[in-house]
Design goal:
3 helices; mainly alpha
Length: 157
């Protein structure tokens, strides 16, 4: 109690209280500003967090891809039905036409292709075959080979 009568102690305590009160006010203002900045940040980030949340992004992708998949599936189904329709029409036409015509047409075409191949490559019908067990390079000797022409062996001239 002796300090209560001391005027220097009162001044010191009053100065300390005023300093602490100013410091407390300053800290209260800083904490208020921090709270305000946190609330502003939350207000700005909330829509972004809501838009890009791990639940909503896959849900949005699902909502977009489901109708797209249904449309693509429908288009592929229409294409498949169209192709099956064309195959059925071709099968009906094939059943109506005689098989004999196709066989004769095929024989004629094979003959034409073979004739064209012989005309274009006359040397293709000749195959050199060595005889008497000589090596394949011995065919250069004129009396040592035969020609295989059109399915028959022909002696050298």
């Amino acid at each position: 109690m002796a300090d209560d009568r001391d005027p220097a102690g009162k001044k010191h305590r009053a100065l300390a209280a005023a300093t602490l009160l100013a410091l407390a006010g300053l800290l209260l203002a800083v904490s208020g500003l921090t709270l305000f900045a946190s609330l502003v940040g939350l207000a700005v980030a909330s829509p972004l967090l809501l838009l890009f949340s791990p639940v909503l992004v896959p849900a949005a992708l699902l909502a977009l891809l489901l109708p797209a998949g249904a449309v693509v599936s429908g288009m592929l189904a229409i294409g498949a039905v169209s192709m099956l329709s064309r195959l059925a029409t071709a099968a009906r036409k094939a059943a109506a036409a005689s098989t004999r015509d196709y066989v004769e047409e095929g024989k004629r075409r094979v003959g034409e292709v073979a004739a064209a191949a012989v005309d274009k490559t006359p040397h293709a019908e000749l195959a050199v075959v060595s005889k008497e067990g000589h090596s394949p390079t011995d065919h250069k000797i004129a009396d040592n080979y035969e020609h295989y022409v059109a399915g028959r062996m022909v002696g050298s001239a």
